[in-house]
Amino acid sequence: MTDAEELRRRTQQLLAQHPPASTDRLDFLRARFDAGLAWVHYPEGLGGLGAPRSLQGVVDAELAAAGAPGNDPRRIGIGLGMAAPTILAYGTEEQKRRWLRPLWTGEEVWCQLFSEPGAGSDLAALGTRAVRDGDAWTVNGQKVWTSSAHVARWAILIARTDPDVPKHQGITYFVCDMTDPGVEVRPLRQITGEAEFNEVFLTDVRIPDSRRLGAIGDGWRVAQTTLMNERVSIGGMALPREGGMIGPAARTWRERPALRTHDLHQRLLRLWVEAEVTRFTGERLRQQLVAGQPGYEGSGMKLAFARLNQEISGLEVELRGEEGLLYDDWTMRRPELVDFTGRDAGYRYLRSKGNSIEGGTSEVLLNIVAERVLGLPAEPRTDKDVAWKDLAR
Fold this sequence. Notes:
The protein is of the alpha+beta class and 393 residues long. It has eleven helices and eight strands. The chain has helices spanning 4-17, 25-34, 56-65, 77-90, 93-105, 219-235, 246-255, 262-290, 297-320, 345-351, 362-373; strands spanning 110-113, 129-133, 136-143, 154-160, 171-177, 183-188, 197-208, 212-213. A hairpin with an 8-residue loop joins strand 6 (183-188) and strand 7. Helix 4 (77-90) packs antiparallel against helix 5 (93-105) and helix 6 packs parallel to helix 9. It is globular.
């Protein structure tokens, strides 16, 4: 299945059998998945046709022209960008068939239980424990900065299963049912007034061994698949020209000539060019995905995404002057997604501060780029061969 015309034919057949105007949205999405047109590069029976990833655009263009409903990827981005590639790479056939379809249609939202209060930048030092008890594991610990935990059905979770080996070796990867007893989600109110992040407490949570991804003790390797895909999904998203943060800033400049100064003009031009360079670099990175799994270049893209968002939103606030200090709504809400362009300049400025933390802190990503992309000498590490239980905490 490598022919674009055949994909167009299949897409038109889907549209004829399930006209978007008269078909329930969820029914249409399910039918699209079953037709192999969800993500064409996935295997047959799992929403794809084993086709080259580059042909996904053929399907998307046909469906967009017909006004077909989408699966709202911003709302289910963690499932699409992080959980799905990991399940595909390490899941059993039963796990793939159970989770991928409702994940893609958005029937089941996913979240990520990785970061911890005492192991944020040093994720491998995590302390959440999973102890084997027959055919299940008992999990105790705390996770933090968990986007969408308040609406999620499932979570990808890493926990320590062997404290007697070095920190990277004693981790196992699980899928946690967020509705199980012992899972408690508490909101974390942010500087924006909202609480899209959460902290999650796990108290004697029972996870069947059938929900383990990968081998026992191999969780760090499995997590690397998640993390590399996460950084690509955050920093390498497809955008049109002036998509993202640069769009509102450029529109304000064009529509409000009284706000202009020579200095602001020079800064806006520089950031506009950088946004375009970053956008094209993201396109190149997505093309690399056609040939295989994402590499560490995603870390560089995520770095650029965070820096640009913060600089552009700061420029926009300054451009607006006193008006830029206004804020539309401090109401405590628990939103399902982050809407950078649907709110005012003040929101964009405050929310972008989190971009250098979420998806890997900028400081950690700088080390990854330096060591694994540029080949610079690694920082000295004295804890790599020390059992986790013997590490100072």
